[in-house]
């Protein structure tokens, strides 16, 4: 349990109302999504692989479409599609993100539907990040998604999946991170808070993983189970085999770099063919058409 800050430890005058809890989507974006870093890395991989500039992006399992919105900000020729099954979250994106894009909002299309069923338009890049595709619990389900994604890519297109693993990943655990105050997409103030990642259970027989996200906001205020996930943890060999079965020509793996001296993860990723296992690691697996 983190030590309360001096501000958090002050007593609120008796009878005064507590301030409303911040929007959970704003807290999630501040703690989890680093879309500009993601886009820098993925665009660099695309340019290195294809020697051209990607223009059309589809963000699958997009939630509030943070990646899609950041994409169109990067150039007037760029267009993005966001696909998600959860209608209220897409409505949040339309209400809270698109109005702040100005004219670029016309180049974002939000689609309510199953990512496995979306085929058009064909795009340069498809992303399935934040381990969102782990919602597929069987090989058949995941292969169907990967095959549909391949058919949705233009010639030379790339599919980006992320994954995590390591010796600590396959067990119950609790991890906390202190998140600095920031601003939301419309300039809304997001206060500092503690992000809590809970891996509630892991079954080694079928790799069934249950996780929760909690937010601690000071003054004794918490947002328990703001988000919950019921996943299968897919391994890198399984992902690469399924990508091949779905028709992808190759599936290079990029691992997050690590600074041995400081014991800290870096923001860069490197192409690896061999990697010494760690307590935790992050990776991109790239489906190459």
Task: Itemize the secondary structure elements and their pairings.
Layout: H1 6-9, H2 24-32, H3 35-50, E1 56-60, H4 66-72, E2 79-84, H5 87-96, E3 108-112, E4 123-128, H6 139-151, E5 153-165, E6 173-179, E7 182-183, E8 189-190, E9 193-203, E10 208-218, E11 221-232, H7 236-245, E12 253-259, E13 264-272, E14 281-288
Parallel strand pairs: 1-2, 1-4, 2-3, 4-5
Antiparallel strand pairs: 5-14, 6-9, 7-8, 9-10, 10-11, 12-13, 12-14
Helix pairs in contact: 3-4
Structural notes for this entry:
By secondary structure, the protein is of the alpha/beta class. The chain folds into 2 domains: 29-165 and 233-288, Vaccinia Virus protein VP39 (Rossmann fold); 167-231. It is 24% helix and 36% strand. Strands 3-2-1-4-5-14-12-13 form an 8-stranded mixed sheet, sandwiched between helices. The radius of gyration is 20 Å and the shape is globular. Residues 1-11 have low confidence and may be disordered.
Count up the helices: 7
Name the helicity range: 10-25%
Q: Write down the CATH topology of the largest domain.
A: Rossmann fold
What's the overall average pLDDT, rounded? 93
In a few lines, what is going on in this structure?
By secondary structure, the chain is of the alpha/beta class.
């Amino acid at each position: 349990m983190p030590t309360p800050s001096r501000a958090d430890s002050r007593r609120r005058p008796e009878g005064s109302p507590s301030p409303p809890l911040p929007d959970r989507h704003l807290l999630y974006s501040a703690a989890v999504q680093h879309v500009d870093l993601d886009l820098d890395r993925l665009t660099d991989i695309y340019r290195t692989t294809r020697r051209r500039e990607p223009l059309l992006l589809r963000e699958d399992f997009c939630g509030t479409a943070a990646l899609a919105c950041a994409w169109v900000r990067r150039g007037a020729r760029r267009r993005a599609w966001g696909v998600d099954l959860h209608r209220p979250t897409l409505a949040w994106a339309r209400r809270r993100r698109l109005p702040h894009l100005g004219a670029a909002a016309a180049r974002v299309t939000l689609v309510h539907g199953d990512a496995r069923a979306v085929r058009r338009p064909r795009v340069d890049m498809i992303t399935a990040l934040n381990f969102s595709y782990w919602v597929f619990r069987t090989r058949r389900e995941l292969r169907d998604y990967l095959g549909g994604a391949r058919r949705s890519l233009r010639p030379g297109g790339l599919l980006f999946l992320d994954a995590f693993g390591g010796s600590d990943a396959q067990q119950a655990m609790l991890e906390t991170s202190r998140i600095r105050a920031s601003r939301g997409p419309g300039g809304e103030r997001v206060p500092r808070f503690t992000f809590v990642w809970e891996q509630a259970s892991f079954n080694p027989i079928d790799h069934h993983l249950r996780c929760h996200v909690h937010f601690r906001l000071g003054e004794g205020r918490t947002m328990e189970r703001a988000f919950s996930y019921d996943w299968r943890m897919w391994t890198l060999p399984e992902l690469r085999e399924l990508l091949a079965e779905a028709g992808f020509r190759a599936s290079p793996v990029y691992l997050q770099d690590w600074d041995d001296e400081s014991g800290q993860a870096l923001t860069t990723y490197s192409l690896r063919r061999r990697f010494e296992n760690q307590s935790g690691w992050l990776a991109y697996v790239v489906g190459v058409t």
